[in-house]
Design a protein that fits this description.
The complex is a heterotrimer of chains A (291), B (437) and C (316).
Chain A lengths: L18 H30 L2 H4 L13 H8 L1 H34 L5 H13 L6 H10 L6 H25 L3 H9 L4 H8 L1 H21 L2 H6 L8 H9 L8 H35 L2
Helix pairs in contact in A: 1-13, 3-13, 4-7, 4-10, 4-12, 5-7, 7-10, 7-13, 10-13, 12-13
Chain B lengths: L4 H20 L19 E8 L3 H14 L3 E8 L4 H11 L5 E5 H8 L8 H7 L7 H6 L1 E2 L2 E2 L2 E13 H6 L4 H4 L3 H12 L15 H13 L6 E2 L6 E2 L5 H15 L17 H4 L5 E5 H4 L5 H6 E4 L1 E2 L5 E11 L7 H11 L2 H5 L16 H6 L4 H5 L4 E2 L6 H6 L4 H11 L3 H19 L2
Parallel strand pairs in B: 1-2, 1-3, 12-13
Antiparallel strand pairs in B: 3-12, 4-5, 6-9, 6-10, 6-12, 7-8, 11-12
Helix pairs in contact in B: 11-20, 20-21
Chain C lengths: L2 H5 L26 H29 L16 H7 L2 H32 L6 H14 L1 H11 L6 H8 L13 H29 L3 H9 L4 H12 L1 H16 L3 H6 L11 H10 L4 H25 L5
The chains are: A mainly alpha (291), B alpha+beta (437), C mainly alpha (316).
């Protein structure tokens, strides 16, 4: 995986620098950066505007920012409960996915057993069957198992959705671990779980971080499943709460509140991504580059 | 541990069948509301759902219920209108139902027909109100003569008129709202008064609100857009003369700029804004969208009439909510007590405080009329109220991608009235056929 | 699910590397007993069986019934398929989804490629730019849709304010209530938001191309574009195929951004297939028919994927 971590190895590329190219790079890159950053900065501004300013043509009040919308969030149980539920579900999904994917990745990479190919194939088949396409039978299945209207059910569902990719990443991570390291640990009498926990941890941590972040981001913004599987409004996740806010379930739509809620939804993604991007980008790429 | 492929497939198939059947196996038993002794000693917590549109009215009743006794507590959960049917259905499917739901009366039909609500006929008969209890509400929750819901609050579509603007334009409310010609004449005169006055308005991108306010023009002639009984329904759209003239009226109002330009995109979030600002002569809407936002002065200047047909006749959308008890609720006795309380004369007389109409006409007294002149006209002619009894109301009228909104927008904004109606006929027929499958 | 989660490479990337790279050990060893291996993979396999394979198999059965969300059901044979396959609304949704996919796919690839060219170098700031370009994808289409909702409002939304300032419109455009306008705006948002993923995947591929390959070309005096066309693109053929498949599948399954921004309207102008399935199942309450539609979608997705692999297959 290290080979694709562009920040470590000096990246190759067809360019030999010339003044023209450098200028192009600075101007083009700068403009493109503006296109990508400005809309997100605008979102921050909107979150600071009172609702009536958000829906008014820009005037002198455009930059009169305040925390009023965020205080409104605290006053609006439907929204902060959504935030709490989303945190619970996303963190639990991230942890569960990373643990299961690590175990399975280790098993598929380092152990020989009959049916290994079939089972690994089964996990990967999931990639070909997007859950949107089996929404109705999945709903019935979850309902029959009493997993609808349950945050636990949502966690199990999100874990399943994210598992195949994460198992794949973890298998790659374990396969790149030299057998000698394991062998010497075995000589010391390390059991399987201790092997993962202490001996192999530094080597597979990047992969596990990728899996966890991947699962967190996916479940943090997931919408269709949450909309379908949750009926009890006290269990809604943030995206569902925001849709209800937007559609007026909690009274007159306050667009300032909606902007602030969206920014709250945005921040953890950006922070976690920036903090873990080295692992994350490398992990994402490992699928396609090794393919 | 080794599985052959065949064993694996067999396992999956068995699991799949079990899942499909298991999902259907959860039967929810309905309480027998008419049983002797039912309701004695009700207590505990009642789980109640209401739709977000009517949360004010429901909350007021719940508060009064709490004040009147301390045995039964109510936990109220508002749910977004567009998701209401989905949420009620998935709750029933999931086997965790609320004890009582406040449901848009037009949706009570599809649930009543699927036998998932408690039979509340004994409760309705106890009231002994006959036709004084909104017959339109009740009909929507009635199957084979049994009532699966009790009328609760009225949300009737009417025409609000700003009498000050009418007077300034030298118009008479009764005369100029009796037919389409009168409306058009009044709209032109009022729009001409000032730069920012308009004669009329509609929420041009809100399917449900348009269904609420536009259909009564057609019903006033005694026809509907849906023909036949449940089980054998089809659209009566193409060639429906009353409908054609109604769409034509709205198109003319739009073409001649007699409605504010914001109507084009309004999804009902700014529905009554122009009227409460005093800029609008006529506003097809409901008491619930005007009264909470309007100044007392404007309400004093307002008059309410029913919505006219092309050449006369009047009608209104008999909207609002029924109270129903999904079968399998944990506290049917508490729920029944809450329902009795909610339809009592005292609570009904207070409905206008939550900006709704009562559903029983016996609340109208001289005092009531003097205090709520904008609510009385519909109660005085409850039999002019109507709402279509169909399993497909939601799909046709309340979904943003339904045929009703599409027809309205194409007819009014693109001016293709007949083509829009022909197109809608096909879609109405298909949806009605599917809904009854 | 929201498209970003879908378009993450989970969906198809690893599929071709299923085969183990080393000769499979059929039996355990002393340090790696077979039973331990099975135990390690069992939980993950169980999740997949319970939440994917069983529903998938039962879907076939359900599609032969009239199963409603509530109420009694019976077998009706192929009636659902007859009804779905002759339903113009379903085919309109399919057509619209294909149109949407056709519109966004190439721009996502082109923009992603261009961004990858910018960030693949080791110039100062390339890493920061890479971070910036990828942020919208990380934030996700769900959140971005809420923000777009604000900016698409007549008069107040920034889309209209900017267009008015440029003198292109009068700033009162109601984007979301007009089918073509809403589609255009949605496509622009999606292209902007997800091209970051394409960028990351292509960039990694580009960085894997040995420098020497380019150096020999430079001695021959090949121009930038010639080198790009004759070296980079051919060597990235499989990576490009992968990114295209990912974005196409994501587009075919689009739901969230439409649900939030247009709810499928006006009329049914912006109703996607997944939205049509959702409505049939959870608004119309007809699970049987909705499941038949789902299986049709599985087939369509499979066909499109297969067709793309065939078109982009390696020339042997």
């Amino acid at each position: 995986m290290a080979a694709v971590t562009g920040t470590v190895a000096p990246p190759a590329g067809p360019e030999r620098d010339t003044r023209v190219r450098r200028t192009l790079y600075v101007v083009g890159g700068g403009l493109a950066a503006l296109v990508f950053v400005v809309p997100l900065l605008l979102a921050l501004v909107r979150a600071g505007q009172p609702g009536d300013v958000v829906v008014a043509a820009p005037d002198g009040r455009f930059l009169d920012l305040s925390w009023v919308n965020f205080r409104l969030i605290l006053d609006q149980p439907e929204i902060w409960r959504g935030i709490v539920n989303s945190v619970v579900v996303s963190v639990a999904t991230a942890v569960l996915t990373a643990v299961l994917a690590t175990l399975a990745g280790y098993g598929f990479a380092k152990f020989g057993f009959r049916g290994r190919g079939v089972l690994f194939g089964m996990v990967l088949v999931t990639l070909m069957v997007p859950f949107q396409a089996i929404l109705t039978p999945l709903y019935l299945q979850m309902n029959a198992m009493r997993l609808t209207d349950s945050l636990l059910g949502l966690v199990l569902f999100y874990t399943t959705v994210n598992l195949p990719f994460c198992v794949f990443v973890m298998r790659n991570a374990f396969e790149s671990v030299p057998g000698e390291i394991e062998d010497s640990a075995h000589v010391d009498g390390a059991g399987t779980l201790r092997m993962i926990a202490s001996v192999l941890r530094p080597l597979v941590l990047p992969g596990a971080a990728t899996a966890a972040l991947y699962a967190f981001l996916a479940s943090w913004t997931e919408f269709l499943g949450a909309l379908t599987f949750l009926t009890d409004s006290s269990l809604y996740t943030l995206p569902v709460s925001l849709v209800n806010l937007q559609q007026g379930a909690y009274g007159q739509v306050d667009f300032g509140l909606l902007a602030a809620g969206s920014v709250v939804a945005m921040i953890p993604c950006v922070v976690l991504y920036v903090a873990l991007q080295r692992y994350y980008v490398a992990g994402l790429a490992s699928g396609s580059v090794k393919g | 541990m080794e599985l052959t492929r065949r064993q694996l497939l067999a396992l999956l198939g068995a699991g799949g069948a079990a899942a499909a059947l298991g999902g259907c196996a959860r039967d929810l038993a309905a309480a027998d509301v008419g049983a002797p002794g039912f309701g004695d000693g009700a207590g505990g917590t009642v789980e109640m759902w209401c739709r977000s549109d009517t949360v004010n009215g429901v909350q007021a009743v719940v508060d009064a219920f709490h004040a009147a006794q301390d045995r039964v507590r109510v936990r109220l959960t508002p749910i977004q209108n567009g998701q209401y049917v989905t949420k009620v259905a998935t709750a029933i499917r999931g086997g965790r139902v609320p004890d009582v739901i406040d449901i848009d009366d037009i949706y009570s039909t599809m649930f009543a027909f699927r036998d998932v609500f408690t039979d509340l006929t004994p409760l309705v008969e106890d009231l002994a109100l006959g036709d004084a209890l909104s017959p339109g509400h009740l009909a929507l929750a009635t199957k084979d003569g049994r009532h699966y819901g009790v009328p609760f609050l009225g949300d009737f579509s009417v025409l609000f008129c700003n009498t000050e603007l009418f007077e300034r334009a030298g118009l008479d409310v009764d005369e100029h709202t009796a037919s389409f010609d009168g409306i058009l004449e009044a709209a032109r005169a009022i729009t001409a008064l000032d730069d920012d006055t308009y004669g009329w308005s509609f929420p041009g991108n809100a399917s449900g609100a348009l269904g609420f306010t536009v259909q009564p023009h057609v019903w006033a002639t005694g026809t509907d857009l849906i023909a036949g009984e449940i089980g054998d329904q089809r659209g009566d759209v193409a060639g429906n003369e009353a409908l054609r003239r109604t769409l034509d009226l709205e198109r003319t109002l739009w073409d001649e700029q007699l409605v504010p330009p914001g109507c084009f995109a309004d999804d009902a979030s700014r529905w009554s804004a122009d009227y409460v600002a005093g800029r609008l002569g006529m506003f097809p809407g409901g008491y619930g969208v005007v009264a909470p936002n309007a100044s007392p002065e404007l309400l004093d200047r307002s008059r309410v009439v029913l919505l006219p047909g092309p050449d006369g006749g009047r009608a209104f959308f008999d909207g609002g909510d029924n109270l129903c008890m999904p079968a399998g609720g944990k506290n049917p006795e508490g729920a029944a007590e809450l329902i009795r309380f909610a339809v009592s004369l005292e609570q009904q007389a207070r409905m206008p405080d939550g900006f709704y109409s009562p559903v029983r006409s016996d609340v109208v007294t001289p005092d009531f009329e003097a205090e709520h002149p904008l609510v009385t006209p519909t109660l005085a002619s409850l039999d002019s109220g109507y709402a279509p009894t169909t399993l497909a109301y939601n799909l046709i009228y309340n979904q943003q991608d339904g045929p009703w909104l599409r027809m309205f927008r194409r007819a009014v904004f693109d001016g293709e009235v007949d083509a829009a109606m022909d197109e809608a006929q096909t879609t109405y027929d298909r949806i009605l056929r599917q809904a009854e499958a | 699910m929201s498209a970003p989660a879908v378009t993450r490479p989970a969906d198809a990337a690893p599929a071709r590397t299923t085969g183990p790279r080393r000769p499979a050990r059929r039996h355990g060893t002393l340090t790696h007993p077979a039973r331990t291996g099975l135990l390690l993979v069992a939980p993950a396999v169980a999740f997949v069986v319970v939440f994917v394979l069983v529903p998938l198999v039962s879907a076939v059965g359900i599609s032969f019934t009239n199963l409603p969300l509530i109420g009694p059901w019976r077998f009706i044979g192929l009636e659902n398929y007859a009804s779905v396959l002759t339903d113009p609304a379903f085919w309109r949704a399919v057509g619209y989804t294909l149109l949407y996919t056709a519109i966004v796919t190439l721009p996502i690839l082109a923009l992603g490629y261009a961004l990858a060219v910018v960030v693949r170098s080791n110039r100062r700031g390339a890493t920061a730019l890479r971070t910036i370009f990828f942020v919208p994808y990380v934030v996700g289409l769900t959140t971005l849709s809420f923000l777009m909702l604000l900016e698409a409002q007549p008069n107040s939304g920034m889309v209209n304010v900017v267009l008015k300032a440029l003198g292109i419109t009068d700033g009162t455009t109601a984007w979301l209530v007009d089918g073509p306008l809403a589609t255009g705006l949605l496509c622009a948002m999606v292209i902007w938001a997800v091209s970051g993923l394409t960028m990351v995947l292509l960039m990694s591929g580009m960085q894997g191309i040995p420098r020497e390959v380019y150096e020999s070309a430079e001695i021959d005096g090949a121009s930038w574009w010639v080198r790009e066309r004759s070296i980079t693109i051919p060597m990235l053929r499989r990576t490009i195929a992968m990114t295209v498949v990912l974005s196409v599948i994501g587009s075919l399954l689009a739901f969230t951004q439409f649900y939030i921004l247009t709810q499928g309207g006006p009329g049914s102008d912006t109703t996607t297939v997944v939205m049509a399935i959702y409505r049939r199942a959870f608004v119309q309450l007809q699970l049987g028919a909705a499941t038949a539609m789902s299986l049709v979608l599985v087939v369509i997705t499979g066909l499109v994927t297969a067709a793309q692999f065939w078109l982009l297959r390696e020339r042997s």
